[in-house]
Amino acid sequence: MRLINTISLTFREFFDSQRPPYAILSHTWEDQEVSYLDFLFLTSNPHKDVMGAIQALLKNPSTDSRGFKKITSWCKLARGRGYEWVWIDTYCIDKSSSAELSEAINSMWRWYREAQDCFVYLLDVSASPNKEGMQEEEMRRNQQVFYEQLSNARWFTRGWTLQELLAPKHVLFCNNRWEVIASKSSIGAKLSEITRIPLVFLDGTYAPNDGKICSVAMRMSWVSQRQTTRLEDMAYCMLGLFDGESRTALYAAPTLLWLNVGPQFTCHLSTARSEKHLCAFNLRS
């Protein structure tokens, strides 16, 4: 796993047994995101003779881009919270290596699960956090604005962010100024309302990828509410959530889950959308 140092902005690779405590970022991709190669170029000092060629090859990356500013802001926040090492999907994976990309996709759920904290960056949420000294009425209004913006956040519509909500033990939500405004534990009921995921799978009472506890139909209903840019990404982003189901098909050909396995769940999906209680046990008991 390749982590980045929040002080020096340099990479270091760790084996699982040697990996230090780290924080992980969940976000929605925007224009001007910085790739692994872009980041290497921007944070190193290549020889002047090859600098122009590298810039052309990497589409002229810039430290003024929104993507690079996201990285530095993320590292600053994590550093302030005591983290020396962090991970983010945009630039910690060398996507030019098919082997590395495959390993990362198959490890994603575990990486988010084993992070000390997962920080969620909500670009379209500007609400401010409640602060000490605020009047009760002001705090109430503040929370109302936050909940309204949270309900409409794009983050809840993307395929990859489903596992980034479910896998981590601790999730902290940040507004677009990188201020922490809530935790998964503090707004669990609201998250359940937005996502239609029962609270018991959000608060850690039950593992959402445990097929003995949560039915395939229920999990498919969560996925059906989300979108990915590419068809194969819908299969990839379900790997951790459906751990154990159709794993061979997923590994061999990612689109098989949606094209071949998916039709088997059509009737389950229609039922799951109308019956929220579909599960291996009665959620109300």
Task: Write a structural description.
The protein has 285 residues and is an alpha/beta fold. It has 14 helices and seven strands. The chain has helices spanning 36-43, 48-57, 66-80, 89-92, 98-114, 136-151, 160-166, 188-195, 199-202, 216-224, 231-236, 247-252, 256-261, 266-274; strands at residues 2-5, 11-13, 23-26, 85-87, 117-121, 171-174, 180-183. It has a seven-stranded mixed beta sheet with strand order 2-1-4-3-5-6-7, sandwiched between helices. β1 and β2 (11-13) form a beta hairpin. The protein is globular, with a radius of gyration of 20 Å. It starts with a strand and ends in an 11-residue tail after the last helix. Residues 246-285 have low confidence and may be disordered.
Helix count, per DSSP? 14
Structural category is alpha/beta
Shape: globular
The fraction of residues in strands falls at 5-15%
Helix content: 40-55%
- Radius of gyration, in Å, reads 20 Å
Task: Give me the strand/helix succession.
Answer: EEEHHHEHHEHHEEHHHHHHH
Spatial strand sequence of the major β-sheet: 2-1-4-3-5-6-7
Q: Averaging pLDDT over every residue, what do you get?
A: 82
N- to C-terminal distance: 41 Å
Which segments are poorly predicted (pLDDT under 50) over 5 or more consecutive residues? 246-285
The tally of beta strands, per DSSP, is 7
Largest sheet: 7 strands, mixed
